[in-house]
Amino acid sequence: MVCAEKTMGMTDAPKVQIFATDIDEQAITQAREGFYTLNDAADVSPERLSRFFNKEGNRYRIRREIREMILFANHNFIKDPPFSRLDLVACRNVLIYLNRTAQERVMETFHFALNPSGFLFLGSSESVDGSHDLYTAYNKEYRIYKSRSIAPRAYPIPESIPALRYETPKIEAYTNDIVPPPAMERLTFGDLHQQLLEEYGPPSLVVNEEYEIVHLSERAGRYLQVTGGEPSKNLLKLIKDELRLELRSALYQAVQRHSAVDAKGLKVNLGDRIETIDIHVRPVLRDGDKAMGFILVLFERSESDTATTEVIVSSDEPVARHLEDELIRLKAQLRISAEQHEFHIEELKASNEELQAMNEELRSAAEELETSREELQSINEELRTVNQELKIKIEETSLSSNNLQNLINSTNIGTIFLDQRFRIVLYTPAAREIFNLIPADYGRLLSDITHRLEYEDLLKDAEVVLSTLQTVEREVTTTEGSTYIMRILPYRTAEDRISGVVVTFNDITARMKIEYAQRESEEKFRVIVNQTPVGICGIDLDANFTFANQRLCQRLGYNESEIIGKNLEQLTYAEDVDDNIRLFRQIIMDKRSFEVEKRLIRKDHSTMWANISMSVISNPVGKPQSVLAVLQDISERKALDQQKEEFMTIASHELKTPVTSIKAYVELLQRMLEDTNETEHVVMVQKLNKQVDRLTELIRSLLDTTRIVKGKLQLQPETFDLNELVKETAEELQRVAPKHTIKLELDRVLNVFADRERIGQVLINFLSNAIRYSPAGGDIVVSSVDEGDGAIVRVRDFGIGMTKEVKERVFERFYRYNDARINTSSGLGLGLYIAAEILQQHQGAIGVESQPGDGAMFYFKLFYDHKSQEG
Amino acid sequence: MKNIIIAEDDPAIQDVTKLILEKAGYHVATFPNGEPLLKHEYEIPDVFILDKLLPGVDGLDICRYLKSKEETRDIPVIMLSASPNINTLAKDAGADDFLEKPFKIQDLINIVQKHC
Fold it and tell me: Residue A729 above 80 pLDDT?
């Protein structure tokens, strides 16, 4: 993440490659996944979390850009060949688990792996102790070390044994010491400087701590000689014999004392002449110097060259000279034998070293191979993972491609994809209904394809779309009369690039037909609505008018714009509002039609009575949308009704007044006559009284009927014993029907809650009919039965009975049953009608069973309710 | 002898009821409307018989008036009417009883007997 942050925004950012290794395969696998738990992420700053991680469930996953910087590999840095040319090795808290030898080996491995001046980052309790020659401290506090850029010593050889073992070839002694001059190259000033120094400075060479020559100047070669045997880089072996002893001690002193040492006045035989030289040994002393540990050896020609030689030579004595000669000879002998010894040792050592070198070379090669194999392996693994991912991606792509293909085939929307030059890229089967397309047309210009559209500007539209990137939508027709909605849209790739246009054709022929039909039917509807003599209006669910036809507007005195938006409440009498709201809600809830007579307020505040039939209009899923109301102005009828009602009330009242006094006089007269024993007169007055009663009954029936029609038949319910009422009524009727025997078969029934007088009226009616339609006299059976949910009362006669047709009509208003056997001149045909109405008001039941010649059985039923139970 | 006051606008009914009740042994005073009852131009009887539909002030209102006065509060009032719903109307006005026209003379005698 730090690398990514640092390289971000750099113009020529270096490509960072990180190798992450472990010897635990499982750990590597986990690391490759790149998943971190919330706890792991707790130490990461929110900015980095959002930048480098994706949250997947309750885990974080490292982003691809970071993941791809890292190669994970199973690698044992002690055993396996190391990586190479690394800039930084971070190996923290591993070394502490290793012993010292292993640590040193690891240090050497890292030194090999690192580029010169590469960094090594160790744990806080670790150091490069024992390998200071390989590393210099860069930051001691954080344990960051820098690799020295010196020529490395022998690299550690991984312990893994190469599969193949080569037999070390014997290398021939190096005989040719002629070094070809370096090819002329373009010189830098540095090189030039170097060259000049070579020329004018004393010859010199650089050796390491092992006295192996690392570099030597051009002319230093003359002080060296290659001896027989294995060639060596060791200065002490290459230096001319005369100089070896002095040089050895000088080097030794220089290393031991850490100081510059000079050896002066040394003679050296250069073949043609003898030269006197001074040797200066200069070790690198400064701490931190890159060249620390290296030693410079300078060969300087001495000024007092020949003089001293002469002096030594001239001071000869004969005996001494002999002894000296002897000594010289012995010395020479000793030196020869010593040299021989040394030579043998050297030879052995050399051949050993040679072998070792060969071996090392091989190992190093093997190790490099191993390293690259490891790298290859980890790359291979990465590739495999990527391959797997790719495979999954391909499967997904193929699935979505299949899906897309099916979608294209199944959709009935003709679609053509065009590229930027309007060549056909793709089309759906439905598009063939408009364009004469065949599979070979892919890549052809759309303008080359014939079509059935009655529209020629398609390509112009497409150009517009391409230039403005605005969708074009048009209704187009084909020569066959089909109608399509044509849409032209820019084709956007995932990268939001426009690479053409998409043309779609949506067949709306059927829809258009429906639309026309709908328009026509709407027009018809509108005409009907406006021509009909009734008022029609639409009301929304909040009882606001949504439309009203002209007739309604006329009737109410408003114009259409005034009425729309008005609430039904504003046209309703204040005292009707509550009922109105309840009724309206009921209609919407029950979704049923409803008819009601209701008064509305006109604009001039007069009253309009209307018969309103309301129907709920539901949407296709049955949810109520609005209410349609048809209003019929019944104000006139209402006024007439009012008049009629008034007339009836007055008439019945006015009729009753004289009847009252007539009846009173008649009864009075009757009493007076009864006292005088004038029987004939009494009978006449009795008949008169009966006719007065009939007149009273007629007036009452008329008044009842009027009230029923107006819905004003009011009940005065009370709790009473039905059987008691039956008994009373039967007794009363028995008195006027001496030819008949009224029998009672009364079951125990519960008390009922009803209008006692009205129910009595029904019973009287039943019994009167029974008496009337059984002219021969006989039994009349009145029974009561408890049916659980209510009480039923039956009145059975054994008279003439009735046919089915009659049975169906007996409860109709003004229906009278004429039969020759019976004097039916009396009666208005209202009795049973009123009885039926009374039972209806009680929510009870009424009926008749009869066969011609077998009498009739009338019954009514009153249901119990909680009030009667309590009573 | 018990006193009865009858307020009835129809002369025939007024006449015949007076006749019936006198025959039954009552002393009857009649008024063609309710005015005298509102003006206290009468002797307090044992029973009032009031027609519902009287010219001027309605019989029900006279009943209410009588029932609101200290001296007549406890005197029984019988409402007389041709209206079928006289029972409720009479009850609402505070009347003690009612009789629907046309009536049997025995009913009239019974109802008067019941209240005095």
Answer: yes
